[in-house]
Amino acid sequence: MRTLRDQTRMVLFFTPWLSIPLALLGLALAVLTPVAVLVPWGWLTILVAIGGAGALALWLRPRYRLSILDSSPLGVFYWLQRR
């Protein structure tokens, strides 16, 4: 039986469907912030980047399956399977 701590670890730290879009969103925001400041309608590019990251997360979600095999205070042993 998985505990709440294991479920939180699984969602926040180890799932590629969440970490990949967040990494790309961070990169996009770093690049697009000067555009949003200098161009009058530049803030729309940030909305497009957020929407794109959400779409990428929804596209990647069914492709990966994560199983936590062992969890201890020293760490987590998990199995990541691509479908």
Supply Rg: 17 Å
CA distance, first residue to last residue: 23 Å
Spans where pLDDT lies below 50 across 5 or more residues:
none
How many separate domains? 1
Helix- and strand-based class?
alpha+beta
Q: Biggest β-sheet: count, sense, barrel?
A: 2 strands, antiparallel
Mean pLDDT: 80
Percent strand equals 15-25%
Residues in helices, as a percent range: 55-70%
Number of β-strand runs? 2
N to C succession of SSEs: HHHEE
What is the overall silhouette? elongated
What is the topology, as strand order, of the major beta sheet?
1-2
Task: Work out the helix count.
Answer: 3
Summarize it.
By secondary structure, the chain is α+β, with helices and mostly antiparallel strands. It has helices at 4-12, 16-38, 43-60, and strands at 64-72, 75-82.
